[in-house]
Design brief:
It is found in: Membrane. Keywords: Membrane, Symport, Transmembrane, Transmembrane helix, Transport. This is Transporter. The protein is mainly alpha-helical. The protein contains 19 helices and no strands. The protein has one domain: Hydantoin permease (Orthogonal Bundle), CATH 1.10.4160. Helix 3 packs across helix 15, helix 11 packs across helix 19 and helix 14 packs antiparallel against helix 15. It is globular, with a radius of gyration of 21 Å. It binds phenylalanine (PHE).
């Protein structure tokens, strides 16, 4: 069992395996579900442009910083921060960065799994012919009927968590990496088919215009904030995930180049999701600005009406499920790494314990939609509370801590060498990580309060 105790020396088997796992984490419900509806609500292409800027100036530097800290610490995010604070003669208060990261991952996974369960349930509906002939009312009723039924939500949340636990229990190479190598190519193929269908449908031109013609009059402060927040969420930052993933990373891997690859793939897939969804929406005269219901209410109307709609619906919700699974796997990893390193449990037992705890909290989240819809804490349901607590507090604060530690506490020369930068490029890196990215995070933090 000593192999289990020293698992922090576990490593990705190759750079490709790491890239796929990190991209799998980044590409999730945020890309397929949230990004398209945010575009729909926030004024189309102008939002996309601002989002891209946020990714470049804030998302990418924090991603690199998380990997760098994880790779230097070689442990779970809490022990990594403790170790780095000690070796750099800084206050142990930095440990809080690791604590809020892992706590954030735990809280997010509990409700992320509930939404992953919705995706699974819709896969079932597509197979069972549940979309056939749906009109707007029928699609609305299908969705609200599911939310109103705690048994159904519990079933799919449980199946979803069981899949995640099964994968993570098998370890970094046998579980995380293998799942990514299987699911990410499958996701790519499904997306290509769906975008291909979109091109052939009558709505592609309208979708392109919607996604790529900027209308700057729609850009408000709120839109900028939403773009910033999403840049954070979509790269799985501020949750200890990328730190945990970095702890399994070989010294030789080029962080900047790898981050660029992951960020590009994440963005391309998010935009491709828009190119899969909006043509169907426009070709069927549906409303692109339906918000969170865009995927679970609007699209099923189309799937219910068009030829081959059941198959398209199946492919679409499988795509959503695969994206959610690889992200949820990454959410469980930092918690498992922590339990494994701080208790006598081996990896399997640690995964089951961490997974069961998350599953249990998820039950409170799913009851928010029905039995406990009247149970309010600070005026919010449990589901909304978990969402707001993480997205407004834990994630930005963790991200801020990560970037500040990396920019101000690490030895400058060693960072410059690690990133392989010349003096000029390194001063750009420093300006971005010391000032621009932290200022960006702070702005989002205070304006969302
Ligand atoms: N990055 C994932 C997405 O875009 C979301 C996620 C958030 C994944 C938090 C892991 C952790 O959906």
């Amino acid at each position: 069992m000593t192999a289990n105790r020293t698992h922090s020396h576990a490593q990705w088997s190759s750079r490709l395996g790491f890239v796929l796992a990190a991209t799998g984490s980044a590409v999730g419900l945020g890309n397929i579900w949230k990004f398209p509806y945010m575009i729909g609500q926030s004024g189309g292409a102008a939002f996309v442009l601002i989002y891209l800027l946020c990714i470049a100036m804030i998302g990418l530097p924090i991603l690199v910083a998380e990997w760098m800290l994880g790779r230097r610490g070689q442990k779970n995010p809490i022990n990594t921060m403790s170790e780095l604070a000690r070796t750099h003669k800084r206050s142990q208060a930095w440990v809080l960065v690791g604590v809020s990261g892992v706590l954030g991952a735990f809280l997010i996974l509990s409700f992320y799994s509930v939404i992953g369960g919705w995706a699974l349930a819709y896969v079932g509906d597509a197979i069972g012919g549940g979309f056939r002939g749906l009109d707007a009312d029928g699609a609305g009723a299908l969705f609200t009927g599911m939310l109103a039924n705690p048994g159904v939500l519990l079933l799919w949340h449980t199946v979803f968590m069981a899949l995640i636990i099964g994968v993570v229990a098998m370890g970094v190479i046998g579980g995380l990496e293998r799942a990514a190598k299987l699911l990410m190519p499958a996701l790519g193929v499904l997306l290509v088919i769906l975008v291909g269908y979109g091109m052939a449908s009558g709505g592609f031109g309208a979708a392109l215009a919607y996604l790529f013609n900027p209308d700057w009059s729609l850009v408000t402060g709120e839109v900028v904030l939403a773009a910033l927040g999403h840049a954070f969420f979509t790269l799985s930052l501020g949750m200890g995930i990328m730190m945990a993933y970095g702890s399994y990373l070989d010294r030789k891997v080029d962080l900047l180049r790898t981050a660029r690859t992951v960020v590009i793939m994440d963005t391309v897939i998010a935009i491709a999701a828009g190119l899969a969804i909006f043509p169907i929406v426009f070709a069927n005269n549906l409303d692109p600005g339906a918000g969170p219901g865009l995927i679970f209410v609007t699209l099923p109307i189309a799937f219910g009406g068009i030829a081959g709609g059941a198959l398209l619906g199946l492919m679409f919700f499988l795509l959503l499920t695969f994206a959610a699974l690889t992200s949820a796997i990454s959410l469980l990893e930092p918690i498992v790494e922590l339990v494994e390193e701080r208790t006598p449990l081996n990896r399997r037992a640690a995964t089951v314990v961490a997974g069961l705890a998350t599953w249990a909290l998820g039950i409170a989240a799913l009851l928010s939609f029905n039995a406990w819809s009247e149970v309010l804490i600070f005026g919010l349901t449990v589901f909304d509370l978990l969402d707001q607590l993480t997205s407004k507090f834990l994630l930005p604060l963790t991200g801020l801590g990560v970037i500040l530690f990396a920019a101000w506490c690490l030895d400058k020369e060693s960072v410059r060498k690690e990133l392989g930068l010349g003096a000029g490029a390194f001063s750009v890196w420093q300006a971005v990580t010391r000032f621009i990215a932290p200022a960006g995070v702070l702005i989002v933090f205070f304006s969302s309060l």
